[in-house]
Design brief:
The complex is a heterodimer of chains A (153) and B (265). With 153 residues, chain A is mainly α. The two termini of chain A are 23 Å apart. With 265 residues, chain B is mostly helical. Chain B is built from nine helices and no strands. In chain B, helix 1 runs antiparallel to helix 2 and helix 6 crosses helix 8. In chain B, 37% of the residues are buried. Classes of the chains: A mainly alpha (153), B mainly alpha (265). Chains A and B meet through helix 1, helix 2, helix 3 and helix 4 of A and helix 1, helix 4, helix 5, helix 6 and helix 7 of B.
């Protein structure tokens, strides 16, 4: 029997995740009369905020790495630079007039609003994981017992 | 206390407590550190949920209000799924059939509660209008359920054997969330109009894709930083080849352990 290649499986997985999502979004877009106002600004703000906060969390994990590698300083400095780069890019783009500003009066207010909105997105996705994971595990653990039959030597 | 200081202490410091508490509480190997992490997490969450009272002047308190509004359904879903899962085929500490029934009822109430927050009068209202973070949370959660359930459907198909029941269930969950998204975009709720919901779905999708791309960039950069550092490390010192004396000694030990005879004998 031919085993599917890992690349093919990955492509199939991506297609299975993206196709239904994009289809529903296309229908919703059609229902909302094709208005995509503000989506690009939200995408960019979310990207910059996510990059900065994820880099910060990965920076924290480098302390564990540093402990295992007898406290090397180089990766810590590298990641710190990336956090500062993300933060700098966010503030730079926010300061460019109306480029990334939404309903907030100042750059600081917009940056703080981005952070809170990122928190809300994380909570929404976490609860989605609880719902799907919980349903899946509840079904797996309550289904009929599956026994593995080994061939006799 | 000044308003800015109050906002820092009750909101941002509490948020940092939640982040650090989660990291220490779930990933530390030392017992007392795990416990301290959990205490930090609970303190941070309580402070955030109290912001409608402690920071009523700040728009950020809407986030605390949302957290407080979600505690009920989140606990019902979490505990409900736990009870159903551990009353099934688990070898140790199996819960009773009654616990399973309780779990099913809790999950149903949790789902109904969330639905009632959009389709009935339970919508989080703060201050005097629909909480703006609820308008971000609800479409994000529905889109997340849709993407994760279709992903789980594909993964089960790839690695599972005889798991058609689970695949059908994932498909059902995906259809349910799609239906809710489409109904929300077509019909007005008591507090949220369908045009507003449709617009928020598109903005939530932009948020999710942005967060995913940003996280992917950060992880890629992290990998590059580590790869560059590791590539610069000097190669480990190679040992000199064994001398004739060492080889002779080793052969004697091996011969002794195998019960054979050496050339000398």
């Amino acid at each position: 029997m031919n085993e599917p290649s890992p690349n093919r499986s990955l492509a199939r997985l991506c297609l299975m995740v993206l196709f239904p999502l994009l289809s529903i979004l296309a229908i919703v877009l059609w229902l909302s009369d094709g208005s995509t106002e503000g989506t690009f600004i939200r995408f960019t703000n979310s990207l910059l905020t996510s990059f900065t906060l994820f880099s910060f969390m990965l920076l924290l994990t480098l302390f564990v790495y540093g402990d295992a590698r007898k406290r090397p300083i180089a990766p810590l400095v590298g990641m710190l630079m990336s956090v500062l780069l993300g933060l700098g890019l966010t503030l730079f783009f926010l300061a460019q007039g109306e480029l990334l500003m939404e309903d907030n009066g100042s750059v600081r207010a917009q940056a703080l609003s981005n952070t809170i909105r990122f928190g809300t997105t994380v909570i929404g996705l976490s609860l989605a994981v609880v719902v799907v994971g919980g349903t899946l595990f509840a079904s797996l653990m309550n289904g009929p017992r599956q026994t593995i039959h080994f061939e006799e030597e | 206390m000044e308003e800015a200081t109050q906002a820092f202490v009750f909101f941002w410091l509490a948020g940092l407590f939640v982040v650090f508490g989660t990291m220490i509480g779930f990933f530390s190997k030392v017992h007392w550190q795990r416990r301290s992490g959990m205490v930090l997490l609970v303190l941070g969450l309580l402070s955030l949920m109290a912001t409608p009272w402690t920071l009523s002047f700040s728009p950020s308190s809407s986030f605390g209000h949302l957290l407080g509004s979600l505690v009920g359904p989140a606990v019902l879903l979490g505990v409900g799924f736990y009870l159903i899962t551990f009353s099934g085929n688990v070898p140790v500490g199996r819960l009773s059939k009654g616990d399973r029934t309780t779990g099913v009822v809790m999950v149903m109430f949790g789902v109904l509660w969330l639905e009632a927050m959009h389709w009935w009068i339970l919508t989080p209202m703060y201050p005097g209008e629909v909480n703006r973070y609820w308008l971000i949370f609800w479409p994000t959660m529905l889109l997340g359920v849709l993407a994760i359930s279709t992903g789980a459907f594909a993964v089960i198909g790839l690695v599972g054997d005889g798991r058609e029941r689970e695949q059908r269930l994932m498909l059902l969950v995906a259809c349910f969330s799609s239906l809710l998204l489409l109904l929300g975009a077509m019909l007005d709720g008591p507090n949220v109009a369908h045009e507003e919901f449709a617009s928020e779905v598109l903005l939530a999708a932009a948020d999710i894709f942005g967060a995913m791309v940003g996280a992917a960039f950060a992880i890629l950069l992290f990998a590059i930083v580590l790869a560059i550092y590791e590539a610069q490390q000097p190669a480990p010192k190679r040992l000199d080849p064994p001398t004739a004396t060492q080889l002779e000694q080793a052969s004697q030990i091996i011969a002794h352990n195998l019960g054979g005879v050496t050339e000398d004998e």
